[in-house]
Design goal:
By secondary structure, this protein is α/β, with parallel strands linked by helices. The chain contains 26 helices and 22 strands. Among the domains are: 93 residues, no CATH class; 229 residues, Leucine-rich repeat, LRR (right-handed beta-alpha superhelix). Helix content is 30%, strand content 15%. The N and C termini lie far apart (56 Å). It holds the Pfam family F-box-like.
Length: 706
């Protein structure tokens, strides 16, 4: 009774936050958005007023995902602590008017500034940079109408001292690159469309007056990422032309990410030959046409490589081991490896091999032993079939990589060989995996907890063991090797999908349940798992993976019916930390049941639904938006009429735009001919991070930009 009375007294007295040490309070305050600290928290008491202005909290200000910030808050923030800010990140603040940038001039001591995705004109950029004499790192967008001749001499003086530049191009231009004479890191993102809004073909030639030559003599890192399109390829060649004349001696990272076919030219061949003679690289990524069929990798020299990407190359496992890993050379420095779409990378040779043939486990074993410190590994978009040899399954070998934080695998690679060979397909799998008539399969029941799944003896599977060995994994992607999203970039929606791999036919609910062992999982992508019957494993994930922030589900189970809806609604009730949800499934019904469950996700910020012949209930959507106050992005591409979609979109904007300045709503028929025109107006942050489906594991080197 005495103990109980003491506990009751302690509870009644409570714990006074102000009794904590300054160090503990500063750590707690570091999780609070800077705008709240400066504009709200510091006004509560004298102690917090002092702590909120501590240099550790004001040195770096991150506004890039502070969706509640507006022009007035930015103005007040810069007025109060502008001189204390050394690093300012406003990337993706598309909702702020361009005049907001004027207030950045108060940050006289800025060293790093990220304005990617912000509206900045040439004149505003000139005015702002003229006052930032200490700036060394800059990220901006170059939009149509940009004119380098409007940059003042003071602005060019600032740019001449910038050593790190990230530039996103929406128009053919050198941007500010010629002014940056001290560049050591150059990141280029090419997002130029081949056609204007009026339908005219664009040219890859630079505007008149932009013939200045970039200065690459001090360059250490060159990175270029191209969106699909001919113009992007033409413009990047102009940037590379200078490199081909004289390769920087200190270059140690050379990366070009180009979708589709990007042919090698004489200039690029000269560049690669020069690199082979004069530099030692730590990071490498090249277009597939530059590697396929060439002996380039045999001549390139590497120092302490930390990133390799051979995405979509026909590189064989034999060449990978001999030319990159150097016959089993110790590559403990390698932390990120992208072999997505590299269909022969685990086979000794590719000349007479079919993509569906079994892998050579000795090649994967050499890779695992040599690169034992890998943190990010992408093996998706290929058929990696394990043989029946005991102990040599792909999952068993990967379980040795104890440092993995992110992993992408094809669905067919995680199945037990014996199960895929001996187990006959269940009745639901006899239904063709195509769009067609809905098939009644009866009332589904599913186990509610992990114990019921254990009774199905799934703990003995190789995938279950893999998930148990990678307890610190934060990102997992399981994607069908033949999966393609219904929303490709700059093209009409895909109407038909390829059938899943035969080896993948047995992958379903039990494998999904195995993922629930990943206690620290933050991002999960599941696409084209054909044997999903009830979605029971999703409930286990919702219960066990409490740190889950991003969830993407696509084409699970049979294509004519959403068989996992009941399990999904149960799962969502437990996802309190979920921020991004993407669903791509034909015939998906976004109705009251779904949105009521989704309303339990109190942290949700972005929702994207892609569904051919899918339906929605406008009242349920409006109720959901009213209940989930954090939601700032709602993208739905369904089978509804254009009138229904437009009316709902207008209703959401009219009702919630005023209180949610960053609100971005796109509701549009998936198969409408104007879909690509609608997509081009979506802010790049949302388009790249959630709306468009893609594998993101090892997509870029880690910590490429802050």
């Amino acid at each position: 009774q005495e103990v109980v009375s003491e506990e009751s007294e302690e509870e009644s007295n409570g714990v006074n936050l102000m009794e904590f040490s300054d160090e503990i309070l500063l750590h707690i305050l570091s999780y609070v958005p800077c705008t709240d600290l400066v504009l709200n928290v510091r006004r509560t008491c004298r102690k917090l007023a002092t702590l909120c202005l501590d240099k550790s909290l004001t040195h770096t200000v991150l506004l890039q995902k502070d969706y509640k910030v507006n022009k007035d808050k930015v103005k007040q923030l810069m007025r109060d602590i502008g001189k204390e800010i050394y690093q300012l990140n406003m990337a993706g603040c598309y909702w702020l008017p361009s005049s907001t940038i004027d207030h950045v001039t108060r940050c006289k001591n800025l060293v790093k500034l990220n304005l990617s995705g912000c509206h900045v004109t040439s004149l505003r950029l000139s005015k702002m940079l003229s006052t930032l004499q200490h700036l060394r790192s800059l990220a901006i967008d170059v939009n149509p109408g940009f004119d380098a001749s409007q940059l003042s001499s003071e602005c060019k003086a600032t740019l001449s001292r910038v050593s790190e530049l990230k530039q996103t191009l929406y128009t053919p231009s050198y941007g500010v690159v010629p002014c940056c004479t001290s560049l050591e890191k150059l990141l280029l993102y090419f997002e130029i469309l081949d056609r204007s809004r009026e339908g005219f073909m664009l040219s890859g030639q630079l505007m008149v007056g932009e013939s200045n030559v970039p200065h690459y003599q001090n360059l250490r890192i060159f990175y270029a990422r191209l969106a699909p399109g001919y113009v992007n390829q033409e413009v990047v060649r102009l940037y590379l032309a200078v490199l081909s004349d004289r390769t920087p001696e200190n270059l140690h990272a050379f990366l070009i990410s180009a979708p589709g076919s990007f042919a090698e030219t004489g200039a690029t061949k000269n560049l690669l030959d020069s690199m082979a003679r004069n530099v030692r690289l730590d990071a490498l990524q090249l277009p597939k046409a530059w590697i396929n069929g060439s002996g380039l990798l045999q001549h390139l020299k590497f120092n302490n490589p930390f990133y390799f990407s051979f995405s979509r190359c026909t590189l064989s496992g034999g060449h990978l081991i001999q030319r990159v890993i150097n016959g089993g050379k110790d590559l403990k420095s390698l932390t990120s490896l992208n072999l997505s779409g590299c269909v022969h990378c685990l086979a000794p040779e590719s000349l007479f091999r079919k993509a569906e043939d079994d892998i050579d486990s000795s090649i994967l074993e050499s890779l695992v032993v040599s690169c034992c410190n890998l943190r990010h590994l992408n093996l998706s978009a290929a058929h990696h079939h394990s043989s029946e040899s005991i102990g040599n399954h792909l999952c068993q070998l990967l379980s040795r990589l104890k440092h993995l934080l992110s992993l992408a695998l094809p669905v067919c690679s995680i199945t037990d060989v014996a199960a895929s060979v001996e187990k006959p397909p269940t009745t639901p799998n006899l239904v063709p995996q195509t769009f067609g008539r809905k098939v009644r399969i009866g009332i589904q029941t599913y186990p509610r907890n992990l114990g019921d799944q254990a009774n199905q003896k799934i703990e003995s599977s190789v995938f279950w063991a893999l998930m148990g060995s990678l307890r610190f994994l934060e990102t997992l992607e399981i994607i069908g090797s033949s999966f393609s999203s219904a929303m490709p970039r700059n093209e009409p929606a895909i109407r038909n999908s390829l059938p899943p791999c035969v080896r993948a036919q047995s992958v379903g609910d039990s494998e999904v349940a195995a993922i629930s062992q990943l206690t620290y999982l933050q991002s999960l992508t599941l696409a084209q798992l054909p044997n999903i019957l009830t979605g029971s494993g999703l409930v286990n994930i919702g219960l066990q993976c409490q740190h889950l922030r991003t969830l993407s589900l696509a084409n699970l189970g049979m294509m004519g019916k959403v068989v996992y809806m009941s399990a999904l609604t149960d799962m969502l009730k437990h996802c309190k930390c979920l921020r991004d949800l993407r669903l791509e499934q034909p015939y998906f019904c976004a109705g009251a049941q779904f949105f009521q469950a989704l309303s339990h996700c109190s942290s949700l910020q972005r929702l994207c639904i892609v569904s051919r012949s899918g339906t929605l209930q406008s009242d349920a959507v409006m109720s959901f938006m009213a209940n989930c106050l954090e939601v700032i992005m709602c993208h739905m591409f369904m089978g509804e009429s254009l009138t229904v979609c437009k009316n709902l979109q207008q209703s959401i904007v009219r009702s919630f735009q005023a209180e949610r300045p960053a609100l971005n709503v796109v509701i549009f028929p998936l198969l409408h001919e104007d879909l690509t025109e609608v997509i081009r107006d979506v802010p790049m942050r949302h388009l790249d991070e959630i709306t468009l489906f893609k594998s993101r594991v090892a997509e870029e080197p880690p910590n490429l930009w802050w």
